[in-house]
Amino acid sequence: MELPEVPAGEYKVQVSAAGGSAETTVKVAAGEELSGVRIELAPKVTVRGTVVDLEGKPVPGLTVTVSGSGGSSAQDGKGNVTDESGRFEFRNAPTGLAQINVSPSSRSEFDWTSLPATLSGEASTIELPPIRVARRRTAPGEYGGDLGFTTHEAAPGADPLKRRWSVAHVRPKSPAALAGVVVGDEIVSVDGQDVQGANSYLFPTLTHAPAQTTLTLGLARGASVQLTVGARP
To answer: Is 61 exposed, middle or buried (0-12, 13-18, 19+ CB in 10 A)?
Structure first.
């Protein structure tokens, strides 16, 4: 492959083919003729699994896609839409660290979900653990109420499978302050649902609630607090 007259700069090169996909970054200096760039394709796999609600019941009619450094691949038919048993199949998924994206229809009661997963290329087919999705607590496009706290952003390059929700700021006299949440608290559960590590993707949906909703936040220090969502300031 040859790319003539490329301006100086840093470029991300993505390659996707039937045999696999890959991504690399190259730097080109002014007037440089760069050659010998080697890109090793990672194998693609078929991903299968089941989407369930927080009670473990299957959820039909949700679209599942898989994206990674090499991007997601087009599908044949509708194998990646969950059936009545909540089952799906996604072919030609990239291996390595990937995002599993679960998209509802506009009329669905469930929220859009994205969670990280590590896909090994050792087998051609991978069976994922059940993917748990939460119901929307607000109407599509509706703003959630005020919680009164913010959390720390994940550090660049941090393992998304080890994500934690640590409180960075609590606004005085806010719902969080009145509930007893303090800076440094780590929220480990919301309404009894684990939101640590591999389950951290549930936190945004479970806390996106309208005013007057009462949330039970489990904290790493062993306390459990009741937070009543306020109106947006």
So the answer is: middle
- Beta-bridged to residue 42, according to DSSP, are 21
pLDDT tens-digit series, residues 72-116? 554 544 568 999 999 999 988 888 888 999 999 878 899 999 999
Read off the tokens for 137: 């607590």
Q: What is the pLDDT of residue 231?
A: 96
Q: Is 138 in contact with 152 (CB distance < 8 Å)? A: no
CB 171 within 8 A of CB 177: yes
Per-residue H/E/C for the chain: CCCCCCCCEEEEEEEEECCEEEEEEEEECCCCCCCCCCCCCECEEEEEEEEEECCCCECCCCEEEEECCCCCCCCCCCCCECCCCCEEEEEEEECEEEEEEEECCCCCCECCEEEEEEECCCCCEEECCCEEECECCCCCCCCCCECCEEECCCCCCCCHHHCCEEEEEECCCCHHHHHCCCCCCEEEEECCEECCHHHHHHHHHHHCCCCCCEEEEEECCCCEEEEECECCC
Measured CA to CA, the distance from residue 155 to residue 19 in angstroms comes to 33
Give tens-digit pLDDT for 162-182.
Answer: 999 999 999 999 999 999 999
Give Cβ neighbours of residue 141 (< 8 Å, ≥ 6 apart). none
